[in-house]
Amino acid sequence: MMGERIAKYLASCGVASRRKSEAIVEDGRVTLNGLTVVDLSTKVMPGDAVSLDGKPVKPKGGFIYIMLNKPRGYLTSVTDDRGRDTVMSLVDAKDHRVFPVGRLDLDSEGLILLTDDGDLAYRLMHPGKNVDKTYYVSLSNPLKEENLHLLRIGIMLEDAMTAPAQVELMHPSGLILRITIHEGRKRQVKRMIEAAGSKVLSLKRVAMGTLKLGGLKTGEWRYLTEEEKRELGVTHE
């Protein structure tokens, strides 16, 4: 057996996403067979002992995948140093160390995936994977057709031009849009709408990749079905 790179091993144990696991290794928090590891090319072989901050890290018997319809007022994080409510208080992870895949702002709602599968999190959030994310957006005022066109071809934000978005009017008033993007910049949809000449009153994510929120009510959660996991490319548990 060829072994598994240290960050991928940590991710498969549910420690964090692969990218965050790489940072954890580089911070010198991981030991392999009693020796501190900082080289990301280091491989874990069968029988090796891996520890994080002095505590043993071992693969779980299986991963879990939870879909949550996040309400407003909850942080998309595992913990908060200011004591605010996080999405973790809304789900029962059965002692698995799940974490949210991606984020929604405090005042946004909708689909959040929580899992301890670091490989899947990496694939869903890596910029190069171009995973679509779809939102229903309520606007303060309707946008002119030329400004909707800017969203569809790419609009300039303060940091860079956005990739083209799919934009569809969902109400004759022009005050409700369905918008799909595959980038993941901070507050991106809100910034795009502001650059186009309006403001977001409410934002709800209704789809991410092949996952669809469907009829899941605000604040409710459920485990993914076997079909949903297959569509996400989950081949291990």
Features:
Alpha-Beta Plaits; alpha+beta; four-stranded antiparallel β-sheet; 3 domains; nine-stranded mixed β-sheet; elongated; 237 residues; Structural Genomics Hypothetical 15.5 Kd Protein In mrcA-pckA Intergenic Region, Chain A
Description of the molecule:
The chain folds into 3 domains: 4-56, RNA-binding S4 domain (Structural Genomics Hypothetical 15.5 Kd Protein In mrcA-pckA Intergenic Region, Chain A), CATH 3.10.290.10; 65-127 and 211-231, 2-Layer Sandwich (Alpha-Beta Plaits), CATH 3.30.70; 132-208, 2-Layer Sandwich (Alpha-Beta Plaits), CATH 3.30.70. The protein is 20% helix and 26% strand. It is built from 6 helices and 15 strands. The chain has helices spanning 6-12, 18-26, 118-125, 145-153, 188-196, 226-231, and strands at 4-5, 30-32, 35-37, 43-44, 50-52, 55-56, 65-70, 99-101, 109-115, 133-139, 166-169, 176-181, 200-208, 211-212, 221-223. The strands form 3 sheets. Strands 7, 8, 9, 10, 11, 12, 13, 14 and 15 form a 9-stranded mixed sheet that branches. Strand 8 and strand 9 form a beta hairpin. The two termini are 20 Å apart. The model has no long low-confidence stretch (mean pLDDT 91).
Structure summary, number of beta strands? 15
Write the CATH homologous superfamily of the largest domain: Pseudouridine synthase I, catalytic domain, N-terminal subdomain
The dominant shape is elongated
* SS content category: alpha+beta
Q: Could you describe the largest sheet, including whether it forms a barrel?
A: 9 strands, mixed
Strand content: 25-35%
And the CATH topology of the largest domain? Alpha-Beta Plaits
Average pLDDT rating:
91
How many domains? The number is 3
Helix-strand pattern, N to C?
EHHEEEEEEEEHEHEEHEEEH
